[in-house]
Amino acid sequence: MMTNLPPLTTDTLWAILNDELSDTTVNQLVWHTLGYREVLSSETPSSETPSGKQWSTEKVDGKWQEKYPEPPNFIESRPAAVQLTRAIPQENKQLLKTYLGFKGYKVDQLVPRLTRRATMANWLLSEMQLRGLISP
């Protein structure tokens, strides 16, 4: 259940980049922003998914709905992380550097888990920009 998610702020993005939030929380924040909503058992059920949870995708973009009927684990799934990268408009691809001043990870930190977290933070920052939550 996606409750008590941190607010979508630059402090939250830094917490993602600095590995201060759990992978589960980071995934849930991206899922929520994409529009995935967990269906409570008392609500009208949708189709059962492999995770055993039921998800409403009515607020999820059609490209995501088709490929991911339930939210993917972006940290474990390279294809999902790649799709997230491709969903960032070109003009927003450098926002971590230009807006947040993120200098990247050191060479010994370049592991898939951290680089995917950076991708997730960059996508969230791009969404913040597109939704007018930050000034350009």
Describe the structure.
The protein is mostly helical. The protein has a single domain (10-130), classed as Actin-binding Protein, T-fimbrin, domain 1 (Orthogonal Bundle). The protein is built from six helices and two strands, in the order H-H-E-E-H-H-H-H. The chain has helices at residues 10-17, 23-34, 62-67, 78-86, 95-98, 112-130, and strands at residues 37-38, 55-56. A two-stranded antiparallel sheet has the order 1-2.
N-to-C CA distance: 33 Å
At the first level of CATH, what is the class?
A: Mainly Alpha
* Strand element count: 2
Q: CATH superfamily assignment?
A: Protein of unknown function DUF1823
Rg for CA atoms: 15 Å
Number of domains: 1
Q: Give the mean pLDDT.
A: 90
Count of DSSP helices? 6
User: So, CATH architecture?
Assistant: Orthogonal Bundle
Which stretches of 5+ consecutive residues score pLDDT under 50? 43-48
Shape: globular
The succession of helices and strands, N to C, reads HHEEHHHH
CATH topology: Actin-binding Protein, T-fimbrin, domain 1
What structural class should be given to the helix and strand makeup?
A: mainly alpha
Described by strand count, sense and barrel closure, the largest sheet is:
2 strands, antiparallel
Please provide a brief summary of the model.
The chain has helices at residues 10-17, 23-34, 62-67, 78-86, 95-98, 112-130, and strands spanning 37-38, 55-56. The chain has 136 residues and is an all-alpha fold. The chain has one domain (10-130): Protein of unknown function DUF1823 (Actin-binding Protein, T-fimbrin, domain 1).
